[in-house]
Each structure stands twice: as structure tokens, then as C-alpha cells.
Write a structure and sequence with these properties.
By secondary structure, this protein is α/β, with parallel strands linked by helices. It has 2 domains: about 1-250 and about 340-415, Rossmann fold, CATH 3.40.50.1820; about 250-335, no CATH class. The protein contains 16 helices and 9 strands. α7 (about 215-230) links the parallel β6 (about 205-215) and β7 (about 235-245). α6 (about 175-195) crosses α7 and α9 packs across α14 (about 330-335). The protein is globular, with a radius of gyration of 21 Å.
Length: about 425
């Protein structure tokens, strides 16, 4: 079995493939002996040596201690369901460590990648399956985890990669959860095709699973963890789930952003995106209901990030702000439908957040920790980062993200601390 695995991986090192279009005899032979149920297409992208990964971190001796295996990178497509119920062919990245034993299956949810008409702002090219050097989360963090023995399943999300021409339903938890879960199932099937062994629970023999993500990825990881525990506990055994600086408490975030008095101090483009997502999914009232003129036209024509005004009371209509504060309004109900801070988790979770984070307020993780603990969750840990003025305010969210990935691989995923 092991020799077959390495034969197949060696084949991928030499011949990038799409199994629906390749005429190579060896490729046909491999396909004929395996019937895909979830994977629509696959493509070998690259092989990455341990030396190259260490080099990416500037030869850092501490990092080199966690670089143990060469890895291969693959792009797959699979079917999943969009927020409107339509089936779409989504894409994602798989990173496979070349281990002699078993790999640790891991779902890696990426942080926000701007979608914008301005090519200087748009970050479509950083979606995981493009394997871009511009995406540090993938180029550095995901590669490091893979080289440490974690088989990475990284969904692009709907709106990126093979679905790049579609609207991305930003932080709609149901779509995020099912897209990530379906990618995970397809990744497991692809590993089976390559005969890559994955670590299983000794009692149930189901695959062990690690989850992680930061910022939007933190919110996505919480959504995925909750979705698996509520719907697919028999499919995977979640060992540990790490999530950093996610906007888990959407109703509280709505109160904070839309009722803020004065200049909020940072671009609210991301919050306009969430607002637009919930309008499309739940309400369909259009931008003019939410934004005063000329802001509604400006955003409709030039994207969320074209808006330079950061004073919510000048931007949003009185009718919309009133609905934000009305617990029975359609928008308030939409916010509540995307709250993922108040439930009971069976598997271990660790939350990470910088106290001074202004972009994604600290109260999101505080509220999640307090509510999930009160609900009797088996184990929810919480680590607070404090920079004490050593990091410029606008850099805190990103700086904490780098620390998050370092702490997860060096501490939490190893020892649970």
C-alpha cells in the first residue's frame, strides 16, 4: 500500500492532471481503479521540499524544528451548495505531507480576501488553490503545518477560485460551514485515492480532525466546528479546534458598528460586505435601504472599499439604524441567524484574540468563551494577546494573526495548552 502511495505521488510530481481531460494511459489506469464520489477534478500543483519551507522563514532555527516532511500541493474541485440552494463547483487546496505513517487531517479556513472592482484592492489571486506567494497564510503557515504532518484541506470559499465570478457570501455561516465541510469530505476522498493514510480514532476508527483559522477564518472555523458537531459527528472526531479573532457575535458587532458615534477610525468596507451579504441572503432591499446618498451609489458602482467616510451616523439611513436596534426586524434576525458564540461544544476549542483589536472587537471572543463555557462545553480555552502600545493600532489584528499560527503549531495542537 505504501509503495502504491509513493508511486502515485511521484506520478503527480511529473504529470499535472485533470482526470476528466487527460488521455495519459497511466492516468486512465489510476482513475479506473478508483471511483470518485465527491471530487470533480484534481490537479497537481507543486512539490515543496523541507529546505524550501525553511528558506521561506529565512532559515529560522526555531521554525526548522517543525519542518519534518516534504509536501505536495494539489488543487481539487468539488460540488457544494451556494446560499441560494444552487449547486456550484467549488475549488480548494490540499497540502499533503510525505509521511511514512499517517497524516493528521486538518481543515484550514483562510482569512478575508477582498473582492473589489479595483485590481489594486482585489485579492482573488490569493485564494488558497492559486498557491500564491502573496498569501502568507498559505505560503508560510499552511505549508509549515503540512510539513509538520498535518494534511491541509483549505477551501477557497464560494466567490474565489473556480467560482471567482460569483458573489462571495461573506460570513454567512451556513454557506461557509457547508462549503468547508464538503471540501473536507472531498479532500478525504482524494487522500484515499492517493492511498495517503490518515490518523484515526482508536475507538471508532473515524478520521481525527484538526480545525484552524484566523479572522474570517476564525469565524469560518467556529461555523464549521458547530456544523460538524450538529450534523456529522459520526464522520470525523475533532481533536482540537483553534480559532483567532473571529466575529462570532454578529448581533453585538452590529450594535457596535452601526450605532457608533463619530469616526470609527478604520474602513468599514468589510462590514458593508457583511451587510450586503445578509441583504442578498435574507432581505433583498438593496443598497439604498442601508446607505444614504451619495454613499449608496458610490458603493454600488465602485465597491465596498471605495467609501472613505467612516462615520456610521453619516453613512447609514435612519430607517436601517432603527432596524438594527429592533430585535424583530429582518436585519436583526439575519444577524442573529449568524451568531455562533452561544452553543455547547463537545470537542476542545481554543480562542485567541488581541485585547486592542479594533477591526474585530475583542468582545467577540469574550462572549463566545463565557457563553460556551456556561452552556457546559467540554473544553473552551481562551488566550488574550496584549501588545501594550508596542504595535501600531492598525497593525494589531495582523500581528496577532502571526502569533496565532505560531502558538497553535508549537503549543496547542501538540499539548492542548
Amino acid at each position: 500500500m505504501q509503495s502504491t502511495k509513493f508511486l502515485r505521488l511521484f506520478f503527480f510530481l511529473l504529470f499535472p492532471v485533470f482526470f476528466f481531460s487527460c488521455n495519459n494511459d497511466l492516468d486512465d489506469e489510476l482513475e479506473n481503479e478508483f471511483e470518485f464520489q465527491q471530487v470533480v477534478s484534481y490537479e497537481f500543483l507543486d512539490s515543496i521540499s523541507t529546505e524550501e519551507i525553511v528558506e521561506r522563514f529565512g532559515g529560522n532555527n526555531f521554525v526548522s524544528g517543525f519542518v519534518n516532511f516534504d509536501i505536495t500541493a494539489h488543487r481539487i474541485t468539488y460540488m457544494t451548495q451556494n446560499f441560494d440552494g444552487t449547486e456550484v463547483e467549488a475549488s480548494g487546496l490540499i497540502l499533503i505531507p510525505i509521511v511514512k505513517g499517517s497524516a493528521k487531517l486538518t481543515s484550514f479556513q483562510h482569512s478575508t480576501l477582498a473582492k473589489d472592482p479595483n485590481p489594486d484592492i482585489d485579492k482573488e489571486h490569493r485564494a488558497p488553490s492559486y498557491l500564491s506567494e502573496d498569501n502568507a497564510e498559505i505560503h508560510l503557515s499552511a505549508a509549515l503545518f503540512a510539513s509538520n504532518g498535518y494534511m491541509i484541506s483549505a477551501p477557497d470559499y464560494i466567490g474565489y477560485g473556480s467560482t471567482g465570478d460569483m458573489f462571495h457570501p461573506y460570513e454567512h455561516v451556513q454557506t461557509t460551514a457547508t462549503t468547508s465541510y464538503d471540501m473536507l469530505v472531498a479532500a478525504r476522498e482524494y487522500a484515499e485515492f492517493l492511498e495517503v493514510a490518515m490518523r484515526t480514532d482508536g475507538d471508532s476508527e473515524v478520521e481525527e480532525l484538526h480545525l484552524l483559522g484566523y479572522s474570517q477564518g476564525g469565524n469560518s472555523t467556529m461555523a464549521l466546528h458547530k456544523y460538524i458537531e450538529e450534523n456529522h459527528m459520526e464522520e470525523f472526531k475533532i481533536i482540537r479546534s483553534a480559532m483567532g479573532a473571529g466575529a462570532y457575535h454578529k448581533t453585538a458587532v452590529g450594535d457596535y458598528i452601526f450605532n457608533f458615534q463619530g469616526e470609527i477610525g478604520f474602513s468599514i468596507g468589510l462590514y458593508l460586505w457583511v451587510m450586503d451579504t445578509y441583504d442578498r441572503v435574507y432581505i433583498q432591499k438593496g443598497m439604498g435601504y442601508y446607505l444614504k446618498e451619495p454613499f449608496a451609489t458610490e458603493v454600488s458602482e465602485n465597491g465596498y472599499f471605495a467609501l472613505s467616510n467612516t462615520n456610521p451616523q453619516e453613512i447609514f439611513t435612519d430607517a436601517f439604524i432603527a432596524d438594527v436596534n429592533n430585535p424583530d426586524s429582518e436585519f436583526r434576525v439575519a444577524l442573529a441567524d449568524n451568531d455562533v458564540h452561544d452553543w455547547r461544544a463537545e470537542s476542545p476549542i481554543k480562542l485567541y484574540h488581541a485585547r486592542e483589536d479594533a477591526l474585530v472587537p475583542y468582545f467577540n471572543s469574550v462572549d463566545a468563551y463565557e457563553n460556551m463555557t456556561a452552556n457546559g462545553s467540554e473544553e473552551v480555552l481562551f488566550e488574550t494577546y496584549e501588545f501594550g502600545g508596542t504595535v501600531p493600532p492598525e497593525n494589531i489584528h495582523g500581528t496577532a494573526g502571526g502569533k496565532f499560527f505560531s502558538d497553535v503549531i508549537t503549543k496547542y495542537f501538540i499539548s492542548g495548552n
